[in-house]
Structures are given as structure tokens and as C-alpha cells.
User: Fold this.
Amino acid sequence: MGALHIVVCIKQVPDSAQIRVHPIYNTIMRQGVPTIINPYDLFALEAALQLRDQFGGAVTVLTMGPPMAEESLRKALAFGADRAVLLTDRAFAGSDTLATTFALASAVSKIGETWGTPDIVFCGKQTIDGDTAQVGPGIASRLELNQLTYVAKISKLDLEAGAIEVERRAEGGTQLLSTKLPALVTMLEGSNEMRRGSLACALAAAQAEITVWNAAAAGIEDLLNCGLKGSPTIVKKVFAPGAHTVRAQQIELQDRNADDIARDLLDQIFIRQPQVEADLMRMASGQ
Amino acid sequence: MSDAPRPAASRANTKKELPERFRNHRHVWVFVEYEHGRIHPVSLELIGEARKLADKLGVEVAGVLLGGSEPEMREAAAQASQFGADLNYIIADPILTDYRNQPYTKALTELVETYKPEILLLGATTLGRDLAGSVATTLRTGLTADCTELAIDDERSLAATRPTFGGSLLCTIHTLNFRPQMATVRPRVMAMPEADPSRVGRVVMHPLGMMEDDIVTKVMGFLADRESATAQLAYADIVVAGGLGLRSRENFQLVRDLAAVLGGEYGGSRPLVAKGWITADRQIGQTGKTIRPKLYIAAGISGAIQHRVGVEGADLIVAINIDPSAQIFDFAHLGVIGDAIEILPALTRAFQARLSVNRLAG
Assistant:
């Protein structure tokens, strides 16, 4: 087996803390909202960089998006990624998760043909704008990669044997899994801390040539699998969450101190939820 | 690009023209998540939801149970039936004892291809999300993740509503021309249905048709959480949570103190996770836990929509916030306009006093 090759899929997303919704048209007002690399993807990128630092080889970052997504790729290069690929084509517009995985999986294959088959494809566990967590598993399915989601730790990588062991976040505990390469790994948040890129990397990133592929360049011949055409789901309606008609009943303050207000609040809680009072009293009397 | 809402006009007018090969797909299925000797509660919540959809469609509810032991699966199937499943498909094979993507994907995909459901629901747990993406991609069908509302439209299609952009907007998504229509729903988003102990269902056994040697991934161990905050927070009867209004990490202790006196769980809003005041498994809201406690006390939380969608199912929401115009007062039932740092300890004292009186009396 040759040198380690890792592909990291990232997504440029609007900084959700600053998203505003148009009060009349219910559309996202993107103007002026800064974009960031999806925060969950940084854990994937850092995990990839750590493995490359340890084993040698190269990290290729891949994103699909509008031409402006190049900015996110440069950031990834500044953190230390070795090369970057931007997959951009009007044909991808309106992709749902299934169409997205088709495009990304095609690009990963093309990356493999160009720079060597990747041993590991990394993704974040989900994005902050879509929150679906479905793109990673979709890519794994299409490329028949062994799927490892919600990985908290990569415990062991044996390139000779083509084997990987991880700790995976499962319901109610941690699953210890071993599988063969090539694998697709989605990293859990908090699994590592993103490094500060070096000055040399930052300078190189600014100058770096980013590989830009349209659908054809990524080896996609059949556009029926892309964008709206390739998306089985249809957004029928977008709307703002309905407002409640009844506002909270306020506890009167009347210049009283916090303890008086708190006692009043407690009474109101018990009046509205006698079951809570009963439960608490049972607990207090020791059964 | 992938999962952002597309312009509503783009294809919202697309007509339903279900291809011939999908027209005999019938019934509403729930993947019943069974691990470590029990059904995940989200699966029972989904059976309740599936019951409503199936009744509207005039079809049946089926549970899908995958696991290592046939007696255990049959027992779980009986439970699923009490909650509303008319029948249960079971694949019992030692290979399925622990969850692994590859054999579970094959098992579920094959059941779908054999028995052809029109709707397939899964819990949006780490297992459900791992499995749903693989199955939907293998079947090349549509999947709507983390739905908050499911309905049937006039054309017998599933209308799956989910929050997007962190809950700023809701969108209703249809899979018009593919089957099954797949959706995941997070724990506690749907109410738990009542069990009917007299209700029984049919069972259909199906073989797996795989050898252990076919499977590349091996489970080497499972370390159960010592404190399963994940499960406890989502299913707690009383939850106390804090937000940035607490002003410092130290002040967050006031939230834990009140939760301890009430025998409840504690959590926080999303910014607290970013600040490192609480761990991610304590986050309440659209991207964290959805809760449905009997009593929810939110202290110093402004009530952004992303938080709101995670707590709306609470029976009683109490908000403490110094800002009278905070959004949380738009959906809380009881409010105190005041500094959480003063009100929280006073409330802890008030409960302590009331409960100790009872202790003496009792």
C-alpha cells in the first residue's frame, strides 16, 4: 500500500448565529451573512491532518458549492491541507442529500483516479444549516466504503494491514469497531481541537491553485442524477414557525425581593402542575 | 447546497406521477430500534405516529425488528403491537446481535424490496441516522431527516415538515415519485402513545442470508455510559436549563443546584456548549436534545427558535429572563422578569423549604 491519502469533505455554510429571516417573504436573508466552514467539518479536517502528520501522505479537501466556496477551501489549506478541489456547476443547484452524495461520490472517485485512491474519506457528523447527517452515509453507500459514523477517536490505523479501529458514539455508550480500509469516517464534535495553521501554510494557501471541476470534469456524464433532477425530495412549502397567541403569565414583581417572587412562582407552578407537586412531595417524604 | 431549502417555487408545483413499479407499495413501517435488551422509546413514539398516518391512508402499521435472538425479537414485537403495530417483520440472526451498518442495511433494504412499504420511519438516533442514510441511498429514494411533523396530503403523499437553518424556518418536504417515503424523527418530538396490553399483532419471519465472513466490520466491545445523560435528559420529568443570561460558567452551578433539589436533569442552550460551560449532550434545542418534561425552567435563555423547537412539548414552561422583550416569553406559560442569578437561588430555597416541611410532616 502506498502513502496515506485522505479526502475530507467540507461545506461552506452561513454562520447560523447571524441568519435572519425576511419577516414578510420567509426567505433567508443571506446578504451580509458571513460564511464559515461548517464547524463539524473542522473536527474531520483536524483528524485527517493528525493522521497525515503521523503517517505521511496527503490530505485533499473537497467541497461542492458555488464559486465563492473557494474561500472555505483556502481556509482548509491554511490549516494544512495539501490540495483542494472545488466541485461547482449550475447542474448541482437544488440538490437534496441523495443528489449531493451522487456528485460528491463522483468527485471522490475522480480524486482517486487523479491522485490515488483515498484510504479514508472524512466528513463532519452533520452540517449546521441542513443538520441531516445523511451525506456521509450516502457517500459511503455509493462508493462501498466501510462506514464509521459519530467517531470520537481513531484508536489505531494499520496501513500495512489496511485496518482501522475506532471508538464510535452509540446510543447509551461507546462502540469499539474495527474495519478495513477504505473507510468513510464522520467525526463527532469535540473529538479534537483544530490547530492554528502555520504562517507558511497561510501564505501558501493564499497562493495555492485550487482545482475547479464542473460536472463533466468530475466524470459525471449523466446529469439526470444531479441537482433538482436527481433529487427525489421536493420542498413544497417554506414557512416561519407559527407564533404563540398566548404570552407567558408574568409573576408580579411589585418591588418584592427575590425570595417572595420565588415563593409566588412556586405556588403558580404547583397550581398549574399538581402532578409535579405530588411527585416532589412523594420524593421528599422518602417514597 | 445539499440540504439547504431550495426556493419554494423551484419544483413545488411538480406533479405526482408515481411510476408503475411503486404503485403496489403499501403500509407504514417503523424501524424498531432494539439494542441491549430494550426497544428505544423513540420507536414506540414513531409507532404512535405511524398509526395516525396508516389510519388516514387506510393501511397497516408494521414494525421491523432486527436482532440476534428470535425469542427476544418476538417479545419486542409483542410490545410493538401493544403500542399499535398490526404486524412485525423479524430477522433474527446472530450477525445482527450488535448494530453494524452493513448487515442492518442489507436486512432492512431487502425487507423493503420484498414487502414494499410506502412509508418507512426511523428514529433520528445515532443508529437510525447511520442506517437511514445508507438504506435511502441504496434504494435511491428520498429521506427527510429530523422531522417535527408528519401528515398525509390529499394525494396520499407523506408531507414531512422539518426545521432548517437551525430552526429559523420550517419546510415541508415530499417524496412524490419514489417509494418508500423515508423520514427520521428525533426522540421525544412525538408523544408516547398509550399501550394496549390486549392488542396483539402478526409476525412475519424473514432470513438474513449473510455469513459472518461477508462482514468486514467487527464489534470489539461496548462501553456503556456510566451516566447516560443523553437518555435521562430527553426523558426527564423536570428539566432546569440555563443560557447566556447566567453570565459566567460559575453561575451555571445555580442551574445544577435547582435541578438537584427537584430531582431533575439540567441542560443549556447552544451558546453554552460553544463556550464550554456544558457538554454537547446537555444541549437542549433543535441541534441538541428535544425534551417533553412536566416542568421546564429556563433561566437566562432568550428563547431563539432553535431552542424553542426543542422544548415546546413541555407541559409547563417557566421562563426567567431580565429582558421583558425576550422571545422566550412568547411561548413560556409562566414568566419572571428578573435576573436569573438572583431568582434561581431564591427558587431553590423556596423548593427546599416547601419540600422539607413535607419531609417533617411525612
In short: Residues 340-361 of chain B form the longest helix (22 residues). The radius of gyration of chain B is 22 Å. The CA atoms of residues 77 and 101 of chain B lie 22 Å apart. DSSP finds nine helices and 18 strands in chain B.
